[in-house]
Prior knowledge:
The chain has helices at 7-33, 38-41, and strands spanning 44-45, 51-52, 84-92, 97-102, 108-112, 125-133, 136-144. It is α+β, with helices and mostly antiparallel strands and 146 residues long. The strands form two sheets. The chain has a five-stranded antiparallel β-sheet, with no helix packed on it. The protein has a two-stranded antiparallel ribbon with strand order 1-2.
Amino acid sequence: xxxxxxxxxxxxxxxxxxxxxxxxxxxxxxxxxxxxxxxxxxxxxxxxxxxxxxxxxxxxxxxxxxxxxxxxxxxxxxxxxxxxxxxxxxxxxxxxxxxxxxxxxxxxxxxxxxxxxxxxxxxxxxxxxxxxxxxxxxxxxxxxxx
Length: 146
């Protein structure tokens, strides 16, 4: 017995046949056009960063002296730090720390008893240098002002 052909089955068969035909047509066009070679697929980047299809011309490299390069941030030079002048605002002898207020600004700097001279107390005028600590700037090399 033959399969019964309904309208839906006939339509699906027509769609499948049309799809096969389109696929066959595309395959023939691809074979007739020829394959693209590797040279057609390669792209080059010129000295300005633009993408081109022509290979760059080989030129000798321009030698640049290191001295000719200008850097926006100059190298840090070892500058002798001038001692700052300040007043001891707070000092706790039991815990061994205190704060010095800079006379030139309103900044307060932490100091430890190990970097302070003996006899230091609140209200004394001192000379000190700054050093970066874990929690900010610390006063070190503390000496009494004359």
